């Protein structure tokens, strides 16, 4: 079998067999197939596409390029969630404790963030002492005992994806739907959960800019999940403004705690109820979405969801006191209010740019070696559709210095666009794909 023959076959619109795809993936992972040949194949896939069977074969070959996680020591069904990335996305901090409080096991493998904010692990490290560096045995035990645990991604999990993504990033082949689907689903399938729900972001602050593109990706993800014998569903959500109000690690943890306490409603709670409802219905633990969401809300009302977060933090070596007293979370030395210069209605908040403001304050990583300041970030006061008068507070900056705060204030003002007339409400949940 020759790689040149496979490139020509896909270039001409042919269909690759499972054996051919496995030859390509494993050979590239081992270093036997050079970058220039694999980049040619990625470009051929970008233009010619792949059918469902090819995409499934590609996904499963990537799964088997390294270690997989066997969750069989954990009793009952296990659920996991993936987001395609967004600004202010602290969903896991709310969703996972809510679902675990309802009795569905959450065995989550998460990574660190690269970009405007940290990942779930970085945010959880706002709790002093919290660690994801626990043994597999303790991970299993924690999920069995309290219903929830988070562990870091290992270097041996889906090494093919790490190599392929780095190549795609520098060869203009990132936008291929089959390659995106196989990248996301290979990691989720290797992580071993029975139920996978996906949050596909759509809009200016997301990779998929239009609802049509987001639907195409969501359908591809759910089809491959089902073909791989997983219970799988996706939610398409609006990312034309940050999710919730906080952008920045400890600030997002504080907001998540507020939602779990029942103090805050809005798009973050709506998303968690939708994703959690899909998890519980897929698990057969609720007859329909209405019943599932009622159960999740009860876990917030009775305090069991908040307690589940505290149990997880304690079980992984962290100080759970900030769960009940969020003022104990890391706090920036400088706080600066950003106020409106004009009257009007908020028409748009450039989500990606808000994320970059947080990153420039120190809340994200420019590269993998960057350190994160957990205390800094942005807390919005206004969202799209809100009426604003001159002098009204738009947001509060949490900064490491007065100079950084002043710079960030000007950058943040430029993220807001105003209209003289009322802005009609848009649905946050765009679609559900099962």
Structure commentary:
With 434 residues, this protein is of the alpha/beta class. Helix content is 46%, strand content 16%. Strands 3-2-1-4-5-13 form a six-stranded mixed β-sheet, sandwiched between helices. Helix 5 (91-101) crosses helix 14 (304-315), helix 12 (267-282) packs across helix 13 (289-301) and helix 16 runs antiparallel to helix 17 (402-413). The longest helix is centred in the middle third of the chain and has 17 residues, at 211-227. The protein starts with a helix and ends with a strand. The model has no long low-confidence stretch (mean pLDDT 94).
Order of strands across the widest beta sheet? 3-2-1-4-5-13
Q: Strand-and-helix sequence, N→C?
A: HHHHEHEHHEHHEHEEHHHHHEEHEEEHEE
The figure for the number of domains is 3
Percent of residues in beta strands: 15-25%
- State the shape: globular
Low-confidence stretches: none
Secondary structure: elements and pairs:
Blueprint: H1 3-11, H2 18-29, H3 35-48, H4 52-63, E1 78-83, H5 91-101, E2 105-110, H6 120-124, H7 136-146, E3 148-152, H8 159-169, H9 177-190, E4 195-202, H10 211-227, E5 231-238, E6 246-247, H11 249-260, H12 267-282, H13 289-301, H14 304-315, H15 321-324, E7 334-339, E8 344-349, H16 351-363, E9 377-380, E10 387-388, E11 393-399, H17 402-413, E12 416-419, E13 429-433
Parallel strand pairs: 1-2, 1-4, 2-3, 4-5
Antiparallel strand pairs: 5-13, 6-9, 7-11, 8-10, 8-12, 9-11
Helix pairs in contact: 1-3, 2-4, 4-9, 4-10, 5-11, 5-12, 5-14, 9-10, 12-13, 16-17
